[in-house]
Amino acid sequence: MPVSKDRRRGGFSMVELVIAIVLVGIMGVGLSRLIGIPFASYRDLSRRAQLVDFADAASRRIARDLRRALPNSVRIAAGGETIEFLRAVDGARYRREAGDNGGGNDHSTASDILSFAGDTDFNILGSFQHLSFTLGTPLNNGHRIAIYNTGSAIYSDAATDANPGIVTPDETDITITADGDEQQINLSASHEFAFESPEQRLYVIDTPITYDCDLSGDTLTRYWSYDITSLQPTNPSAAPLSSATSVLMVDLVDDCSFDYSPGTPQRAGLVTIELVLADAGERVRVLHQVHVDNSP
Questions:
Q1: Are 166 and 147 in contact (CB under 8 A)?
Q2: Which of 81, 157, 245, 270 reaches 20 to 30 Å from 111, CA-CA?
Q3: Which pTM does this prediction carry?
Q4: Residues near 220 by Cβ (< 8 Å), separated by ≥ 6?
Q5: Number of C-alpha atoms within 13 angstroms, CB side, residue 98?
Q6: What is the mean pLDDT of residues 232-241?
Q7: 217 CB contacts (<8 Å, ≥6 apart)?
Q8: Apex CA 286: angle with CA 282 and CA 288, to 5°?
Q9: Are 212 and 235 spatial neighbours (Cβ–Cβ below 8 Å)?
């Protein structure tokens, strides 16, 4: 019996349907690969950009702290994964001899002049510009006066409260009062500074700061507000870092190193910071160099 035209014009055969499904699948796979490659590249690019941003932000924070470091107080532990320094919150020039400061006030009494023979009171030329304080009220605990620090001896002096010494002892309260056109520093106990500064410079310091890379935990952490010790602390689980205030600066740390070139009294020191961050197969390296003042 012949097949009618209506039956010959019916739907797809099973073979045709299978072929169509196979072709659509092949096209779908090709299209997904075509679209997936740009998306994967975008994800990788975003991940790299984020790692660079994290590393750059951390290194810039370290650099900002280093620019306020007390001259010659930078020290780096063996292995180069931990850096420590003392933060100077202000500086001034002390009065070494009688005279006035251009304001007509006579500053010739013994309490106006730093004698380097044991003092409780002495003037600075002018006033502090950055230190936060109230006249007549002792500065917060931890503040010390340092004069002519030329090396790491300040850490042993500070730890042992040496007198004579480069820095005032921890238990010595510091009060600032007004003395006409100058400000006067009042110490709660007599202190003899070990060395005179050729430029009559003094610094007010308030805390040591440590940046420690823990490569086993892939972290970089900042520590502050802890006791000064003769030996550089490197163990966050032990004193004094265990009692310090701390904040995680960045994780995903694959490698980290600090290097310090102290320079000379005529040339600034140089700290090199290298951070390597890694995540999901992406790895970025950021190098930052900071000039630090080493003229005491």
A1: yes
A2: 157
A3: 0.85
A4: 58, 211, 212, 213, 214, 248, 249, 250, 251, 253, 256, 275
A5: 4
A6: 97
A7: none
A8: 175
A9: no
Residue of 133, 209, 208 whose CA lies nearest to 174:
133
Residue 99 has pLDDT above 60, yes or no: yes
Q: Which helix (H) or strand (E) holds 248?
A: strand 245-250
Q: pLDDT tens digits, residue range 170-218?
A: 999 999 999 989 999 999 999 999 999 999 999 999 999 999 999 999 9
Residues whose CB is less than 8 angstroms from the CB of residue 15 and which lie 6 or more positions away in sequence, other chains included: none
Max Cα-Cα span within the chain: 135
Residue whose entry in the numeric block shows the structure tokens 């096209």: 27
Which residue, chain included where needed, has tokens 């941003």? Answer: 53
The whole-angstrom separation of Cα 117 and Cα 130 is: 28
- Whether 2 has a pLDDT exceeding 60, the answer reads no
Q: Which residues make beta-bridge pairs with 144?
A: 205
